[in-house]
Design brief:
mainly alpha, 380 residues, binds zinc ion, elongated, 3 domains, single chain, 12 helices, three-stranded antiparallel sheet
């Protein structure tokens, strides 16, 4: 084998002896015997660290040198072993976070292009935003953010940390929150205050994407005035027209979160996103959010029973859950069943978005969950 570097404590051995040592070590020969036989000055658990790394068949993408694998203890499992692949020459590491000069440079370039995209996106500012300039989602989100993290008076640069645990979660968990935060940043209602955190922002199809771990603050255009303006538009039932159509998107997010929660609780793997979305949209046409939650909850229970009784796999049960929700809804429609609305359980509490939407905007309180969103009595 090609020995790339020899530890000083093995320097007295010939390369042939080193090869024998490696072979015997991984043949699980007793380490204390090996140490004695090869006259090595180390403790038994240190021996593998002295062995020269194993030369792999892969080449470094940076400097083209052959990459190597670190030695592992003779008793260790082999699965994680490949993850240690690195380049002896430039220290590039194939897996995990690499800090070699090559990757640092590539990272810097990426951060630079993100910053350029972010700044050009921030330069377009509009002053004096009014409630009518916002979508319902934006208005509800801003109110929820202020209620979750802020005070009555909006301070400049008020920091919002969605990842910080608040008694009432800001938005439904799931990718909806990241998407929502990205949309709010895209609309320049939020700004990112820690652009140095590489996980906070990324570029996705040339759009700035914000992650849950980002530190955000309200943009300078969001002032107490705007929040008051949104609140009066709502309390005086003076809704901008597009809001009426946008109500259903928020109801959908609510159901989607609950679906994922119920499936996740039973360790069902995820199924095709499109199928679940189509089923939930179909349900929401005729059932209230609360009724949809009831159907989802029962669907999950049926699927769990199905798994036990039919000794099905979790992935079969996951597909069964989508189907059984749809069949349940179809039957309820055909036979005019009274579907009791569901109250959120404590394990999956309502989000602040949900409180603001149902209790404040729609003024339907608990009942809001009981009327189909499509025919909910919208304030006129
Ligand atoms: Zn290299
Ligand atoms: Zn690297």
């Amino acid at each position: 084998m090609q020995n790339t570097s020899i530890h000083p404590k093995l320097a007295h051995l010939s390369s042939e002896q080193v090869n024998t040592l490696i072979k015997d070590y991984y043949a699980k020969k007793k380490v204390t015997d090996l140490i004695q036989r090869f006259n090595i000055d180390c403790l038994p658990f240190q021996l593998y660290k002295l062995l020269p790394p194993e030369v792999s068949s892969e080449f470094c993408p940076n400097c083209d040198a052959v990459m190597v694998l670190p030695r592992i203890p003779q008793s260790a499992h082999q699965n994680k072993y490949k993850q240690g692949l690195y380049c002896l020459q430039c220290k590039h590491q194939e897996y995990g976070i690499c800090t070699c000069a090559y990757c640092r440079e590539a990272n810097k370039k990426q951060q630079k292009s993100i910053k350029i995209a972010y700044h050009s996106h921030c330069q377009i500012t509009h002053n004096h935003i009014k409630a009518t300039d916002l979508t319902l989602e934006q208005a509800v989100s801003l109110l929820s953010l202020v209620r979750c993290y802020g005070t009555a008076k909006i301070k400049k640069d008020m920091i919002i940390q969605p990842s910080k645990i608040s008694t009432i979660p800001f938005a439904p968990k799931s990718s909806y929150t990241d998407d929502l935060l990205s949309r709010l940043s895209e609309a320049r209602l939020l700004k990112i205050t820690d652009q140095s955190n590489p996980k906070a922002i990324s570029l996705l199809n040339n759009k700035v994407a914000v992650s849950f771990s980002a530190q955000l603050s309200l943009s300078d255009t969001v002032l107490s005035e705007l929040i008051r303006n949104i609140e009066t538009s709502i309390t005086e039932t003076n809704w901008p027209t597009p809001w009426y159509e946008q109500v259903s998107e928020l109801a959908f997010a609510e159901c989607r979160e609950f679906y994922d929660f119920c499936a996740g609780e039973r360790m069902f793997p995820s199924v095709d996103e499109k199928i679940v979305t189509a089923m939930l949209r179909n349900l929401l046409e005729d059932f209230s959010t609360g009724q949809c939650l009831r159907i989802i909850y029962s669907g999950a229970q049926y699927a769990a029973d199905f798994m036990v009784k039919k000794t099905a796999t979790p992935s079969q049960a996951a597909s069964y859950m989508v189907g059984v929700c749809q069949r349940w809804a179809d039957k309820a429609r055909a036979e005019n069943w009274v579907v009791t609305a569901f109250r959120r359980n404590f394990n999956c509490p309502r989000s602040m978005l949900s409180y603001v939407l149902y209790d404040f905007v729609l003024k339907t309180d608990e009942e809001g969950l009981q009327i189909p969103i499509a025919i909910v009595q919208l304030p006129i």
